[in-house]
Specification:
Blueprint: H1 3-15, E1 24-30, E2 35-42, E3 55-61, H2 63-79, E4 87-91, H3 96-99, H4 115-133, E5 136-145, H5 147-158, E6 165-169, H6 175-184, E7 197-203, H7 207-221, E8 229-235, H8 243-255, H9 270-284, H10 292-304, H11 308-321, H12 326-338, H13 342-359, H14 364-379
Parallel strand pairs: 3-4, 3-5, 5-6, 6-7, 7-8
Antiparallel strand pairs: 1-2, 2-4
Helix pairs in contact: 2-8, 10-11, 10-12, 11-12, 12-13, 13-14
GO molecular function: hydrolase activity
InterPro entries: AB_hydrolase_fold (IPR029058), Esterase-like (IPR000801), Mycobacterial_A85_antigen (IPR050583), TPR-like_helical_dom_sf (IPR011990)
Signal peptide: 1-22
């Protein structure tokens, strides 16, 4: 087994027990909806490692039921640079039928058809409020399940001006005689920006759910590739209720496909990483600056796969950008020690201990152990 893979195995044992990420409550008054809004917000673990770094936002519809597992999975996947670190925001609509449907059905009178108003709330009220309080970047992903999956499908096909990517898990595309699918036949994306990345999944579901999935597939397959950037996937072993977990994991990997610069054990130098993300920007239309976890994963991979100097350069750049990151200072200490530079290793480790204590880091025990070992080696 490669040394790096051994490190990953050890690292996994440390993080599984704490994968559920702490969240905070965000409240505001919506003038558009004329109601109070309560959202749950999970910040990336690295949020306190910088005073200026901005993060994409993942808006979770049906936040009361879907927020926790999605926030946990974003935390896990971003730790290994499979997806970017994101601010996860769970929002729950008080009237799902009205907020998540874009057409009115006679049978539901005034209880449907409010999707456009809800979009205005998200775009013109919620997002500016989040930007005011948090370091939010101009890249927005939405995810929804069932009726809210219909809504995220609506956003993916009608609001490329607002969102960059969408996940729709078992969406209720049967609504109003497949109205959204009929709209998609004539819909086009804005030519001046890359098409919204859109992931749609369906579980083992009968009748109109299965029919809507097949209809959507035929419509999208008939579209030119430039119209929609989509992926459809079925989960035959899942039910409508169970599919949200795997649907969101696969959806996140889909809308951020190609994001991980070093998915296996191959390695890249800092210059190669910078070139990689310059190319990725051309693909998705947004410049994703490297985050704490990317510097950490790519730096350690390079060092443990024999390019210690590459790893050192990557991690040194990391602590330059994130000068308060106990994770990066601790990894840099490890790499300095691999290069037999114990004096620099101890200095980096001391910084790691300082910031780990300030941040009440879950890695404090491991960081203090390395610090103690380095002190002994330096004394000898």
């Amino acid at each position: 087994m490669h040394l790096y893979l051994k490190v990953v195995a050890l690292f996994l044992s440390c993080i599984f027990a704490t994968i559920a990420h702490a969240s905070e409550i965000f409240t505001m008054k919506s003038k558009l909806l004329d109601e109070g809004i309560t959202a749950r917000v999970a910040l990336p673990e690295s949020y306190e490692h910088s005073d200026s770094f901005q993060y994409p936002v993942l808006l979770v519809m049906d936040g009361s039921t879907q927020f926790e597992h999605i926030a946990g999975n974003v935390n896990f996947l971003s730790t290994f640079s499979i997806v970017p670190e994101m601010i996860v925001v769970g929002v729950s609509a008080k009237n799902r039928l009205k907020r998540f449907t874009h057409t009115k059905m006679e049978a539901y009178a005034d209880r449907s058809g409010g999707a456009e108003q809800y979009t205005q709330f998200l775009q013109d009220e919620l997002m500016p409020a989040l930007q005011k309080k948090y370091r939010v970047s101009p890249y927005t992903v939405v995810t929804g399940h069932s009726l809210s999956g219909l809504y995220t499908s609506y956003l993916a096909t009608h609001h490329s001006d607002f969102i960059n990517a969408a996940i729709s898990v078992s969406p209720s595309l049967w609504w109003d005689d497949f109205a959204l699918i009929n709209d998609i036949k004539a819909a086009e994306q804005e030519a001046e920006k890359p098409a919204v990345r859109w992931f749609v999944s369906m579980a083992n579901e009968p009748n109109e759910m299965a029919e809507s999935y097949e209809r959507l597939l035929k419509v999208l397959e008939a579209k030119p590739e430039s119209a929609f950037n989509w992926e459809l996937k079925q989960f035959p072993n899942e039910t409508h209720d169970s599919t949200a977990l795997i649907g969101n994991v696969e959806g996140l990997k889909s809308v951020f496909r190609g994001f991980n610069a070093v998915p296996n054990i191959e390695i890249k130098s800092l210059e190669q990483l910078q070139a990689f993300y310059a190319d990725y920007e051309k693909t998705v239309g947004y410049d994703f600056p490297m985050s704490v976890q990317q510097y950490n994963v790519y730096g350690l991979k390079a060092a443990y796969e024999g390019q210690v100097d590459w790893g050192q350069t990557i991690l040194e750049k990391g602590v330059e950008v994130f000068d308060k990151s106990e994770v990066l200072w601790d990894s840099l200490a490890t790499v300095y020690a691999m290069n037999d530079n114990n004096e620099s290793a101890l200095k980096a480790s001391n910084k790691a201990v300082q910031f780990a204590r300030e941040h009440q880091s879950k890695y404090i025990s491991e960081i203090e152990v390395q610090n103690s070992d380095l002190k002994k080696q330096t004394e000898n």
